[in-house]
Write a structure and sequence with these properties.
Layout: H1 3-14, H2 30-37, H3 45-49, E1 53-60, E2 66-72, E3 76-82, E4 89-91, H4 104-124, E5 128-131, E6 138-145, H5 149-157, H6 159-163, E7 167-174, H7 181-189, H8 194-203, H9 218-233, E8 241-245, E9 251-255, H10 262-267
Parallel strand pairs: 6-7
Antiparallel strand pairs: 1-2, 2-3, 3-4, 5-7, 6-8, 8-9
């Protein structure tokens, strides 16, 4: 499922309060009540799982409902509420008398925060090249192709932050733009000083950039493949794909070159 279809699903399911899906045809029995107390997952959830809803955990819900925190399309946190009879499920937002979304806090705890931490850990473990001081207080990851003009524009625009020691860019190298992109990424990754090689590519970008590597070893090819898989997994279909942490420590994403004041959101104050 694409990110676009994931959002479509959430919008469609949230547009109405209740969506009825085929579920158990029997009323809840004492046995079923015991299974509920034991935390067994209601069978009705299988219906929304077919639409890309992945259940992560259960939380307390009002009105005899059972609340389930999950993810749609691997990226979009969402709440599902199973009715007391176990026959139907609501997907979307449930509000109390004060207009508060009762699922917001559980989603933050059970889904959003763990997903954010997991994404950041995967980025840390990817094949990236440092651009900036190692002790810079802010780290920003960007999926970069050595031939990507928008990656180059982002590199140029970030110079005031990077040169001032405020931001460290970590370029997660991929080879997707041109035929020689993997070989250029390999030249950077396998250089004695990858950071210097990255700098060479950017400074010579208008003249063709760094000279491609003569060949790709299996190790480098695997790293580039893994980076591309991660890029797609994190919801990007092109470069640059930028990830950073907000003030609450949650991972935020930007597809493409940040525009205007959004640069300070991504990179922080100048």
């Amino acid at each position: 499922m694409t990110l676009k279809s994931s959002r479509t699903l959430i919008t469609a399911l949230s547009a109405v309060l209740l969506i009825t899906l085929a579920g158990c045809s029997q009323a809840q029995t004492p046995k079923a009540a015991a299974e509920k107390a034991g935390g067994e997952r209601p069978a009705v959830l299988k219906g929304i799982e077919k639409h890309g809803f992945e259940v992560i955990g259960e939380f307390d819900a009002p009105g005899g409902l059972r609340g389930f925190a999950g993810v749609v399309g691997g990226q979009q946190p969402a709440a599902a509420y199973v009715t007391a009879d176990g026959k139907n499920v609501v997907v979307g937002s449930l509000f109390d008398a004060n207009g508060e979304d009762v699922g917001a806090a559980p989603l933050e705890k059970l889904v959003a925060k763990p997903m954010s931490e997991r994404s950041w850990k995967k980025l840390e473990e990817s094949a990236w090249v440092r651009d900036g001081k190692a002790d810079a207080p802010r780290v920003v990851y960007t999926f970069s192709d050595a031939n990507c003009p928008y990656c180059h524009r982002f590199w140029e625009a970030a110079r005031p932050w990077v040169d001032a020691g405020k931001v460290q860019l970590r370029h997660v190298m991929v080879g997707v733009i041109r035929e020689d992109s993997p070989a250029k990424a390999a030249a950077i990754l396998t250089a004695p000083n990858p950071s210097a090689a990255l700098l060479e590519n950017e400074r010579l970008f208008d003249k063709g950039g760094i000279k491609p590597a003569a060949s790709l070893t299996a190790e480098v090819a695997n790293k580039l493949d893994a980076n591309q898989v991660l890029m797609i997994e994190l919801g990007f279909q092109g470069t640059p794909g930028i990830l950073f942490k907000d003030a609450q420590g949650m991972v935020q994403r930007r597809s493409g070159m940040p525009q205007g004041d959004d640069m300070t959101v991504v990179l922080g104050p100048r």
